[in-house]
């Protein structure tokens, strides 16, 4: 196990990664105080993850009612829009404090045209 300060690790990251891959453990320090450890990752999965339910767990089935259309009352709950709801579709967005000042700043402080950049014949 070796120790290295952050600035060293940043400067020679690939070297420290190679050392870690070979099995060495490197303690990374800030102002000579340990804050992290760099080491190789154990048991890297090479085969793809299995798709489907986990072994030993019961499977579940969706009831047929899940695929039926929603009732008119339920659709109204989903489609509800109110004038006071800023997240509702079609409602005007509220501007934050100082939004107009930002726009004024952009107009007022546009970069000046540079003089003398045109070629003269």
Protein described:
By secondary structure, this protein is α+β, with helices and mostly antiparallel strands. The chain has a domain at 2-38: YefM-like fold. The protein is built from four helices and three strands; from the N terminus they run E-H-H-E-E-H-H. A three-stranded mixed beta sheet has the order 1-2-3. The model has no long low-confidence stretch (mean pLDDT 76).
Give the gist of this structure.
With 121 residues, the chain is α+β, with helices and mostly antiparallel strands. The protein has a domain at 2-38: 3-Layer(aba) Sandwich (YefM-like fold).
Q: Which CATH top level class of the domain at 2-38 fits?
A: Alpha Beta
Quaternary organisation of the protein chains: single chain
Which fold name is given in CATH as the topology of the domain at 2-38? Answer: YefM-like fold
Strand order of the biggest β-sheet = 1-2-3
**Coarse morphology:** flat
Span between termini: 72 Å
* CATH architecture designation of the domain at 2-38: 3-Layer(aba) Sandwich
Summed over residues and divided by their number, the pLDDT gives a mean of 76
What is the β-strand count? 3
**Largest beta-sheet characterization:** 3 strands, mixed
